[in-house]
Structure formats: C-alpha cells, structure tokens
C-alpha cells in the first residue's frame, strides 16, 4: 500500500537517501519492485528529518505524488540530516484526508509510518479506538487506519514504552481484532529505529563500520548487504546494531 524508509547514521542529504539511488523511494512511487499490494504510490508523500541539536523533527508533506514536487527536489538537494523517515503513499480509500493522511506522523521526538491496511476498517478496529481517551481520538490527524495505528503507538510511547514495545503491542492487538491486516510499521526518535514486518516486505542495510543503518520497504540499490526481514518480525536498530525478534499473535 505504501513504501517507506528510515535512516540513522552520519549526516547525508535527503537526496542521497530518497532520490539519487537507482531504485530510490522516489522511483518506488511509480515503479516499486517488491510491493505486494497496489502498484503506484501517488496519493501523497512525506519526509521527516532531525537538525543537529534539536530533538523535534521537521516535516515536509504533500497530498500529490513526490515525482511532481519541485520544492521537494530543492529540499532534497540541500537538507542534510543524520536521521530521516520518509514515505510515499498509496491510499487504502480514495480521497481520505489528503496531506494530513501522509506519513510521517509525528509527536514530540517521534516520526511514524504505516505501510499496509487494517482489514475490515473501520469496524474491526472500533473496540481499540473506543479504549482510547476521547481527547486522543479528537487529536487524530486523519480519518484513516494509519492515523489510528499511530494513536495506539503514540499512547504507549507517552506511557514510557521503548520503541520496539510501542510497535509490537499494537500490532498484536490489531492482528487479533482484525486478522489479515497488513501492519508494517516504522518508527524513529532520531537515534534509533523500530519496525515491524507483518504482511509486506521489509529490508535493512547494516553498515556498522560506517555507523549507519537503513530500514526500508525494499532496497533502494543492489548493494549485496541488504537483508530481508522475515514476516512477523520486530526489528530494532541503532547506527551500529540491528536486532530481529519474532512476533507472535495474541491468542484468545
């Protein structure tokens, strides 16, 4: 349904990550190689990045396709960062909230993206939504499944959960409430990355010697160091370490 990417490491331009590689995220917006659902990711895009010394990320999002945005091309050429999260979107439902529905979602130091779809939306997720405080529901940026998934993750982050737990528990809850959902989630705080492989492709490129890690829906080049993450797995990573943990569904 979407393609997304997160990076932590030495500062690089956005273009080096998102547009310059042969199979970059920009190219994946019209020609993904490993996308299992949908064919074109033209329903919006977003990129979030961290400036040195500032824990709160900046964002640039638009409702249209990334390939037609000349302002993004300029930003990508000059903006440098050591931590980035970006996504291109294929909407589950047509016309759903435009730019507000484009990842990354953010709160405080966090950036978040969801690649997939909650099955039987919105009915199947209604019990989980009902468990959220009304003020949190009223703060949803969009009326999409991804926005609700972010609300569930954000609640755990605010309660003090680490990045991995904040993703793993909502995935278990949603997979129980809506079996067959695709829940590839991606989260960063600017220092580390957490991601889940659940129903679609996920890959990582680890370069401990260079102090960098990239996690993405699919490789952006043909570097032989890219590794595929097994389905139903939690990935947690820093610039020098990647850890994979199997995820299990909640049982009634």
TrEMBL record:
Q: Which GO terms describe its molecular function?
A: hydrolase activity
EC main class here is hydrolase
* Keywords per UniProt: Glutamine amidotransferase, Hydrolase
Gene3D superfamilies named in the record: Glutamine Phosphoribosylpyrophosphate, subunit 1, domain 1
Lipid biosynthesis listed as a keyword: no
Pathway named in the protein's UniProt entry: Amino-acid biosynthesis; ergothioneine biosynthesis
Membrane spanning residue stretches: none
Reaction catalyzed = gamma-L-glutamyl-hercynylcysteine S-oxide + H2O = S-(hercyn-2-yl)-L-cysteine S-oxide + L-glutamate
Name all Glutamine amidotransferase type-2 domain ranges. Answer: 2-252
Instruction: Give the E.C. number(s).
Output: 3.5.1.118
What is the purpose of this protein? Catalyzes the hydrolysis of the gamma-glutamyl amide bond of hercynyl-gamma-L-glutamyl-L-cysteine sulfoxide to produce hercynylcysteine sulfoxide, a step in the biosynthesis pathway of ergothioneine.
Q: What is this protein called?
A: Gamma-glutamyl-hercynylcysteine sulfoxide hydrolase
- Whose protein is this, by species? Streptomyces virginiae (Streptomyces cinnamonensis)
The taxonomic lineage of its organism, from the top, reads: Bacteria, Bacillati, Actinomycetota, Actinomycetes, Kitasatosporales
């Amino acid at each position: 349904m979407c393609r997304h990417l997160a990076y932590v490491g030495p500062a690089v331009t956005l273009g080096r990550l998102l547009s310059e590689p042969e199979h970059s995220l920009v190219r994946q917006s019209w020609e993904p190689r490993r996308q299992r659902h949908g064919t074109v990711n033209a329903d919006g895009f977003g990129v979030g990045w961290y400036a040195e010394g500032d824990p709160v990320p900046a964002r640039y999002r638009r409702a249209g396709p990334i390939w037609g945005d000349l302002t993004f091309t300029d930003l990508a050429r000059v903006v440098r960062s050591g931590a980035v999260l970006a996504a291109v979107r294929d909407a589950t439902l047509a016309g759903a909230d435009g730019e507000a529905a484009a990842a990354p979602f953010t709160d405080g130091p966090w950036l978040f993206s969801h690649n997939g779809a909650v099955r039987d939306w919105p009915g199947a997720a209604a019990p989980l939504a009902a468990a959220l405080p009304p003020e949190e529901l009223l703060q949803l940026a969009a009326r999409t499944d991804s926005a609700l998934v972010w609300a569930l993750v954000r609640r755990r982050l605010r309660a003090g959960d680490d990045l991995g737990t904040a993703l793993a528990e909502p995935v278990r809850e949603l997979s129980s409430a809506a079996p067959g959902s695709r829940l590839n989630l991606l989260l960063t705080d600017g220092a580390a990355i957490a991601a889940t492989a659940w129903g679609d492709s996920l890959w990582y490129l680890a370069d401990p010697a260079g102090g960098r890690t990239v996690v993405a829906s699919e490789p952006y080049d043909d570097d032989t160091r890219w590794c595929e993450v097994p389905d139903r797995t939690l990935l947690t990573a820093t610039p020098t370490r990647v850890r994979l943990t199997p995820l299990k569904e909640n049982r009634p």
